[in-house]
Design goal:
Blueprint (H helix, E strand, L loop, with lengths): L14 H8 L6 E4 L6 H8 L5 E6 L2 H10 L7 E5 L5 H7 L7 E5 L4 H5 L26 H7 L2 H12 L4 H11 L5 H12 L12 H12 L1 H15 L10 E6 L2 H14 L20 E3 L9 H6 L7 E7 L2
Parallel strand pairs: 1-2, 1-4, 2-3, 4-5
Antiparallel strand pairs: 5-7, 6-7
Helix pairs in contact: 7-8, 7-10, 8-9, 11-12
Amino acid sequence: MVVMTYTPTHTPVLLEESLRYLAVRPDGRYIDCTTGLGGHSEAIAARLGGGQLLCIDQDGEALEFARARLAPFGRRVSFAHGNFRELASIARDAGFSSADGILMDLGVSSLQFGDARRGFMFGQDGPLDMRMDTRSGGLTAAEIVNEFDETSLANLFYEYGEERQSRRIAAAVVRARPLRTTWELAKAVEQAVGGARGRTLIHPATKVFLALRIRVNGELDSLDAGLPQAHSLLGLDPDGEGGRLVVIAFHSLEDRIVKTYLKQESTQCLCPPELPVCRCHHVATLRLIERHAVKPSASEVAGNPRARSAVLRAAKRVA
Ligand SMILES: C[S@@+](CC[C@H](N)C(=O)[O-])C[C@H]1O[C@@H](n2cnc3c(N)ncnc32)[C@H](O)[C@@H]1O
């Protein structure tokens, strides 16, 4: 049973665009790899007739919330608690040998951001945890900030947070140990580099928190592993109509992985241009539905500031 200390709300990002690019068919089979609070899933399920939707999330609490929300759709919707880096086996166990559409709405849900106990945000004080899957037994943010050496911390903040003051912050973190809570970490960063930055007054710990979250959850590795599995699951009808993959990313590192993967798989030959004859024999099995990244409208961002950094890419199977 889910015991929540508040009622989470989450406005699905780029919802209309996701539905358009998924082109949901009433009899189709769909997989939401990042169900969260079920906003996108609910809209997909509402368009199904005899079709099926498999809802996956690595966060058991989110999945229970979505299960209750999507209960009115009955057996059209099924659920799996897991990480999409194991998408092929999760789908197989759920009876999905292929899919007409797969959605990945990456990152963190408002359930995770809004709950101080999960330690994702410095807006409220909480334990430095940041695990999306609390049963994973993986490293917590506290273990990383208290146990990694200074150089490893600096590299982490630089690589995953693109934080230019990574060395100075890493030194301050090491000096301030032990750090147990989000506020303690935010304060250590603030002391190292000063207060809010830029015109938008971004908190100086924002990039450090992002870097830790990416590392704690192995987010980039999961995406690297999950994309080819999603690709392989996309069906191809005898009439040539292929399954669709829609991915929404929220920071440049994950969008780069998505962009590179989709570009590669929608390119017929990957040989260097100076080779006169193709030697790689790579076949384009995807086609980009939109050549460029799709971003939320100004009105969506005004109504849902979380959408600000969203970037959607979509492709369909063609061979
Ligand atoms: C942005 S939220 C999704 C929100 C959802 N589309 C909605 O409308 O409510 C992202 C969700 O993806 C989950 N998630 C992130 N990475 C995952 C992964 N590798 N495997 C499974 N779930 C993941 C998170 O736990 C979180 O619940």
